[in-house]
Inverse folding.
C-alpha cells in the first residue's frame, strides 16, 4: 500500500535519529535542513519520516514560504502542514526563528531515495523560486532504525 | 535532470484533514 493519504505523524511523536541532517538549501541566509527520524510510522516500515527545518539568518524577513517536493514514481512523498510560512529577521540576541514541517517518504521498492524540491518565498520585496535535488538520504536498509 | 521517472510536485494540504 503505497499511499500516504492516511498516514499522519505528529511532530511530538518523532524521535530524532543520530544520523546527521542534510542541508537541502542554503542561500542568502535562508537555510533548509532535512533531519531524519529514528523510527518509521507504525505499520509502515517503507516510510522515512523527515523533519524539515527552515532557518533565517538574514536581516530581512522571509514570507510566503511554500515547499513542494517530487520523488521518482516508484516512491511517494507527503508534506504535512508547516508550523508557519514566515521567518522573522535574524537577531543575534535571540534564537533564530524556525519553521518545522514533517515530510513522509514511502519507498517500498527500496530504491535509492531521491527528492526534488521547489521552494517559493518572498525575501523583502523579492519573490523567488528555487529548485534543487537531494539524494543524501540514509541508506534505505537503515530506515526504521536510524 | 531526467524528468521522466519523477512524479508531480506535492505540497502540504493547507487544512490537514487530521
Amino acid at each position: 500500500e503505497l499511499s500516504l493519504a492516511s498516514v499522519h505523524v505528529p511532530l511530538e511523536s518523532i524521535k530524532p535519529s543520530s544520523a546527521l541532517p542534510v542541508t537541502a538549501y542554503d542561500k542568502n541566509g535562508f537555510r533548509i535542513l532535512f533531519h531524519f527520524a529514528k523510527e518509521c510510522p507504525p505499520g509502515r516500515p517503507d516510510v522515512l519520516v523527515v523533519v524539515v527545518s527552515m532557518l533565517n539568518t538574514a536581516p530581512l524577513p522571509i514570507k510566503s514560504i511554500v515547499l513542494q517536493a517530487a520523488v521518482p514514481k516508484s516512491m511517494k512523498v507527503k508534506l504535512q502542514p508547516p508550523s508557519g510560512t514566515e521567518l522573522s529577521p535574524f537577531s543575534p540576541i535571540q534564537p533564530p526563528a524556525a519553521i518545522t514541517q514533517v515530510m513522509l517518504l514511502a519507498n517500498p521498492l527500496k530504491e535509492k531515495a531521491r527528492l526534488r524540491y521547489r521552494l517559493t518565498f518572498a525575501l523583502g520585496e523579492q519573490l523567488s523560486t528555487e529548485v534543487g535535488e537531494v539524494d543524501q538520504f540514509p541508506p534505505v536498509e537503515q530506515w526504521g532504525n536510524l | 535532470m531526467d524528468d521522466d521517472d519523477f512524479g508531480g510536485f506535492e505540497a502540504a494540504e493547507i487544512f490537514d484533514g487530521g
